[in-house]
Amino acid sequence: MKIFVMRHGEAEFHASSDKSRQLTVRGRLQVETKAKSILCLLSEVDIILHSSYTRAKQTAEIMADTLKLKDVEELEHWTPDSDPRNAISSLEGVVDRTPLIVTHMPLISYVEALLCDGNMVSPAGFNCAEIVQIEAEWPAIGLGFNAIRF
């Protein structure tokens, strides 16, 4: 299976809560530009999953519009402080699909490291609107390979 994991676009710094932070104008532009520039690479995506945080939902909506996808769902295990093991396990329900998951730092770094390296010793950072494509026979620790970032 192919798994695409994306960090949300740039978000405002101040809001009533971290969960309610919205994308900035620049953040919306980052996501729109990314989506349009790699549209052909995302042609297999058939479902978009996102965290419950506003900025992730807004990013997912922009991606869905660009990809012309209607299948967009919120997942509870993909917030910034979620356990990356639970996030990975939540993908077992979409093994027959090609998901794009919109999430946050540091979770995205830990998920990539666990899937591809089998540990979280040295997770790499992600820029806003950056995407990693990971291939895996099954969404489980250490089973990811061919990680490509764009």
What is the element layout, followed by pairings?
Blueprint: E1 2-7, H1 25-37, E2 47-50, H2 54-67, E3 72-74, H3 84-89, E4 99-103, H4 107-117, E5 131-136, E6 144-149
Parallel strand pairs: 1-4, 2-3, 2-4
Antiparallel strand pairs: 1-5, 5-6
Helix pairs in contact: 1-2
GO cellular component, one term: cytoplasm
Pfam families: His_Phos_1
GO molecular function: protein histidine phosphatase activity
Keywords summarizing the entry:
4 helices; 20% strand; 6 strands; 150 residues; alpha/beta; 6-stranded mixed β-sheet; protein histidine phosphatase activity; Rossmann fold
Summarize the structure.
Pfam families: His_Phos_1 (PF00300). The protein has helices spanning 25-37, 54-67, 84-89, 107-117, and strands at 2-7, 47-50, 72-74, 99-103, 131-136, 144-149. Strands 3-2-4-1-5-6 form a 6-stranded mixed beta sheet, with helices on both faces.
Explain how this protein is built.
This is Phosphohistidine phosphatase SixA. InterPro entries: His_Pase_superF_clade-1, His_PPase_superfam, Mito_Ser/Thr_phosphatase, SixA. One of its GO terms (cellular component) is cytoplasm. Keywords: Hydrolase. GO terms for molecular function: protein histidine phosphatase activity. The structure is a single chain. The model has no long low-confidence stretch (mean pLDDT 96). The chain has one domain (2-149): Phosphoglycerate mutase-like (Rossmann fold, 3-Layer(aba) Sandwich), CATH 3.40.50.1240. It has four helices and six strands, in the order βαβαβαβαββ. It has helices at residues 25-37, 54-67, 84-89, 107-117; strands at residues 2-7, 47-50, 72-74, 99-103, 131-136, 144-149. The relative contact order is 0.23. It has a six-stranded mixed β-sheet, sandwiched between helices. Helix 1 (25-37) packs parallel to helix 2. By secondary structure, it is of the alpha/beta class. Helix content is 29%, strand content 20%.
